[in-house]
Automatic annotation (TrEMBL):
<dbReference type="Pfam" id="PF00561">
    <property type="entry name" value="Abhydrolase_1"/>
</dbReference>
<keyword id="KW-0256">Endoplasmic reticulum</keyword>
<comment type="similarity">
    <text>Belongs to the AB hydrolase superfamily.</text>
</comment>
<dbReference type="InterPro" id="IPR029058">
    <property type="entry name" value="AB_hydrolase_fold"/>
</dbReference>
<dbReference type="GO" id="GO:0046464">
    <property type="term" value="P:acylglycerol catabolic process"/>
</dbReference>
<dbReference type="GO" id="GO:0005789">
    <property type="term" value="C:endoplasmic reticulum membrane"/>
</dbReference>
<dbReference type="GO" id="GO:0047372">
    <property type="term" value="F:monoacylglycerol lipase activity"/>
</dbReference>
<keyword id="KW-1133">Transmembrane helix</keyword>
<keyword id="KW-0472">Membrane</keyword>
<feature type="transmembrane region" description="Helical">
    <location>
        <begin position="5"/>
        <end position="22"/>
    </location>
</feature>
<dbReference type="InterPro" id="IPR000073">
    <property type="entry name" value="AB_hydrolase_1"/>
</dbReference>
<dbReference type="InterPro" id="IPR000639">
    <property type="entry name" value="Epox_hydrolase-like"/>
</dbReference>
<keyword id="KW-0378">Hydrolase</keyword>
<keyword id="KW-0812">Transmembrane</keyword>
<protein>
    <submittedName>
        <fullName>Mesoderm specific transcript</fullName>
    </submittedName>
</protein>
<dbReference type="InterPro" id="IPR050266">
    <property type="entry name" value="AB_hydrolase_sf"/>
</dbReference>
<feature type="domain" description="AB hydrolase-1">
    <location>
        <begin position="62"/>
        <end position="312"/>
    </location>
</feature>
Length: 326
C-alpha cells in the first residue's frame, strides 16, 4: 500500500510542477483590440494601462470609469461606445495589480494607493482643473469614496467631482459577504500562496459565475477574457495582497462611509438586486437610510453583481437619466 502512494506522489509532483509554470493564455482578438486601443503611463515606476477615447462633439463632459475586483477596465466594454456618444472624453484604467497594468509582488496594495493612481492619471491627462463624472463598480466604489473624501477635504491633487455613480460595491462592511475563496486568500497567510498558484480557469469560472445572474451568465469567450486579464503578468499571484481591501473597508469605514453621507456631490446608485456579495434588501435599505441625498436605480430582479455587463442597456438608461437630472 505504501508503495502505491509513493508511485502516485511521484506522478503528481511533476504534473503539479508543470501546471504551476503554465504560461498565461493568449489574448483573444477582442481583448487584443482593447489592449491595442490603450496607452500606458508611469506611476512611481510602474506601468498603468488606460484608455482615453474622445467622443461627443460640442461637449466638454468627461467620465472616468473605475472597475471592480478581480477584473479590469474591459468590464466597461459593453457600454464604452454609447458613453463616447454622450461624453467628450471617456477614460478607464486598470488599477495597479489588475488587467494590463503592472502587478508587482511582493507589494502592499491599498485603496489609498489606487486613489493616488487615479489622481496621477487625471494629472497626466491634463484634467486636474476639469470637473469629472465618475462611474465605479465593486472595488472601484471604494476607490471612488477615497477620491471623494480627498476632494471634500480639498487635499492637494484631488479630483473635482461633477457627479458620482456607484454600482454594487461592498461599501458597508456589515452588509458585505465575500466569497469563500476571497476570505481564505485575505486571511490565511499560510494557504494564500498555495491557493493563488493552484487557482485555475475552472475554479475562476465557477467563482465568477456565482456572482452573475442565472440568465445573464457570461459566454465562454467572456469568461475566458476575464481569466486572461487576471493571468496577464501573473495577476493570480497577487490576489491575496489585493484582497486586503476587504479588511481596509472595515478599518476605514468611518472615513469612506462618512464621505458618502456628507458630500454634496450628486450621487446615484445602480444596483443589481440578485447580488450575493451585497444582498437585497439589506444592502439597499442601509444605503437608502444612510445616503439620503442619493438617487437609486434597482435593476431587474435577475441582475446580479455585474450590472454593466449583465444589463448594459438598463445600466446606461439609469446612468443617462441620472446625468440629465442635474
Amino acid at each position: 500500500m505504501r508503495e502505491w502512494w509513493i508511485h502516485v506522489g511521484l506522478i503528481c509532483i511533476p504534473l503539479v510542477a508543470v501546471y504551476l509554470h503554465i504560461p498565461p493564455p493568449q489574448l483573444s482578438p477582442a481583448l487584443q483590440k482593447w489592449h491595442s486601443a490603450g496607452e500606458v503611463f508611469h506611476f512611481r515606476g510602474r506601468n498603468i494601462f488606460y484608455r482615453d477615447s474622445y467622443g461627443a462633439l460640442g461637449s466638454s463632459d468627461v467620465v472616468i470609469l473605475l472597475h471592480g475586483f478581480p477584473t479590469s477596465s474591459y468590464d466597461w466594454s459593453k457600454i464604452w461606445d454609447p458613453l463616447t456618444q454622450r461624453f467628450h472624453r471617456v477614460i478607464a484604467l486598470d488599477f495597479l495589480g489588475f488587467g494590463f497594468s503592472d502587478k508587482p509582488r511582493p507589494h502592499r496594495y491599498s485603496i489609498f494607493e489606487q486613489a493616488s493612481v487615479v489622481e496621477a492619471l487625471v494629472a497626466h491627462l491634463g484634467l486636474s482643473n476639469q470637473r469629472v463624472n465618475v462611474v465605479s463598480h465593486d472595488y472601484g466604489d471604494t476607490v471612488a469614496l477615497e477620491l471623494l473624501y480627498r476632494s471634500d477635504q480639498n487635499r492637494t491633487g484631488h479630483l473635482t467631482f461633477n457627479s458620482l455613480c456607484l454600482s454594487n460595491g461592498g461599501i458597508f462592511p456589515e452588509t458585505q459577504y465575500p466569497r469563500l475563496l476571497q476570505t481564505l486568500l485575505k486571511d490565511s497567510s499560510f494557504l494564500a500562496p498555495i491557493l493563488t498558484r493552484l487557482t485555475n480557469y475552472v475554479i475562476f469560472q465557477k467563482g465568477i459565475g456565482e456572482v452573475f445572474g442565472p440568465y445573464t451568465q457570461p459566454t465562454d469567450a467572456e469568461f475566458w477574457d476575464m481569466w486572461t486579464g487576471l493571468r496577464y503578468n501573473d495577476g493570480n499571484l497577487v490576489l491575496d495582497s489585493i484582497l486586503q481591501y476587504i479588511n481596509q473597508r472595515l478599518k476605514h469605514r468611518e472615513r469612506w462611509v462618512g464621505a458618502l453621507t456628507s458630500t454634496y456631490v450628486p450621487l446615484h446608485m445602480i444596483y443589481g438586486p440578485l447580488d450575493p456579495v451585497n444582498p437585497h434588501p439589506q444592502f439597499i435599505r442601509l444605503y437608502q437610510k444612510l445616503v439620503q441625498r442619493s438617487t437609486i436605480t434597482v435593476l431587474d430582479e435577475h441582475i446580479s453583481h455585474y450590472p454593466q455587463l449583465e444589463d448594459p442597456t438598463g445600466f446606461l438608461n439609469a446612468y443617462f437619466n441620472f446625468i440629465h437630472s442635474f
